[in-house]
Amino acid sequence: MTFLFGLVVSKTNTITQQNNTSMRSLIIGISFVFCFLFWSCSDEWGQISYRTSATLVYKNKSKQPIKMLIYNTLGNAIRTIRLQDSDSIQIELEGSPVVQAWGFRQSVEETGDSVVIYFDEEKCLSHTFRNNTGTFDFRNYDNYTPELVQQRKFTLYYTFTEEHYAQAQPCE
């Protein structure tokens, strides 16, 4: 009986060791599956980001102080920007998949639909998204190239000049 009992004990120990080994393998396998699922679903690893970042730099070389009022599609002024002669301002924008000038956020309330540029509060220019005029058309920017704006991150420069002031009409 001792022999049988020893055999039973020996088999029990072997089965317990096999169960422990199987359980460890199962836990490690499940951990790898969860890690793989976690990383494969994130934007940082293994997926393409469709976000575009742009820095738009506006310079005033018109010899006049400028005030820009940016309006949304609802007709509400959402931003006011003031530039003295020779001043500049940088505006950081993001878009998915593209950036829109004056698109501060991807919502109707925070996206510019029109811009009125006041030169010394006397003469005005109006740029609109609908007509793709002035600052809304990247082709009007100083350093525009099609290759530049196809990048995921780029910088464009727009300079207000004396010619802009000459084109401006009396403000209403």
Description:
Strands 3-2-5-6-8 form a five-stranded antiparallel sheet. A three-stranded mixed sheet has the order 4-1-7. The chain folds into two domains: 1-47; 52-170, Immunoglobulin-like (Sandwich). With 172 residues, the chain is an alpha+beta fold. It contains three helices and eight strands; from the N terminus they run αββββββαβαβ. β5 and β6 (123-128) form a beta hairpin.
Helices, strands, pairings?
Blueprint: H1 2-40, E1 52-60, E2 66-71, E3 77-83, E4 88-95, E5 114-119, E6 123-128, H2 146-149, E7 153-160, H3 162-167, E8 169-170
Parallel strand pairs: 1-7
Antiparallel strand pairs: 1-4, 2-3, 2-5, 5-6, 6-8
Give me some keywords for this one:
single chain; 172 residues; alpha+beta; Immunoglobulin-like; 2 domains; five-stranded antiparallel beta sheet; three-stranded mixed beta sheet; 3 helices; elongated
